[in-house]
Amino acid sequence: MFSGDLSQVEGYQFTLALDGNAVELVNLEAGIAKEENFGIFATEGVVTASWNGEAGNGNLFSLVVRAKADANLSEVLNLNSRYTAAEAYNKAGEQLNVALNFTGGQPVATGFELKQNTPNPFAGETVVGFNLPVAGDATLTIQDVTGRTLRVIKGAYAQGYNQVILKSNDLKATGVLYYTLESGEFTATRKMVILE
Q1: The whole model's pTM is what?
Q2: Are 28 and 75 within 8 A, CB to CB?
Q3: Going edge to edge, which strands form the sheet with 113-114?
Q4: CA angle 107–183–18, rounded 5-degree value
């Protein structure tokens, strides 16, 4: 994985998930980021990264994966905030977005996308991830099967990947629930299940 110009970046962190049905992590080779900058959880298909320091252009690190099924890397690698928040900071202390780009230079999931909550079903807490094409306001509404609103979360979110952590205690419900994300002209709904 190559960085753009890291000379203005003070540090970054993220979680990288690999779809275990399609690829298997064989090795992670250090570059600008060294071995101590990573946590590898092979059985979960997760790599966490956290780096800060002085660097310029170059190879951040290399992932060596073995294909287990026909798939594009853009479909089986997912940069997210599941364990380590996906964020970077410049030398002025301003927060920056972190994104994966594949051949062709197009960022992955740059459009509006509401992801399936993980874990699902869940007890305790779950993460709802979503991508916004531009920074802006978004509203996440959780409803039961009768349409009764259990919780509404409004906020200003960054362009790219964002997440909201939901706790089952706050929803005071079990069984099937629906969550809807609205941002500008975009709307999407998915189903989640809370266990007792």
Answers
A1: 0.51
A2: no
A3: 113-114, 125-132, 160-167
A4: 35
Mean of pLDDT over the chain:
82
SS3 169: helix
Q: Check pLDDT > 60 for residue 136.
A: yes
Q: Classify each residue of 150-172 as buried b or exposed e, where b means 16 or more C-beta atoms within 10 Å of its C-beta.
A: bbebeeebeebbbbbebebeebe
Token pair for 153: 């979360």
Three-state DSSP at 75 gives helix
Structural domains of the chain, with CATH:
6-96 (2.60.40.680), 113-194 (2.60.40.1930)
Whether pLDDT at 153 is above 90: yes
Tokens of 79: 């940069």
How confident is residue 189, by pLDDT bands cut at 50, 70 and 90? very high
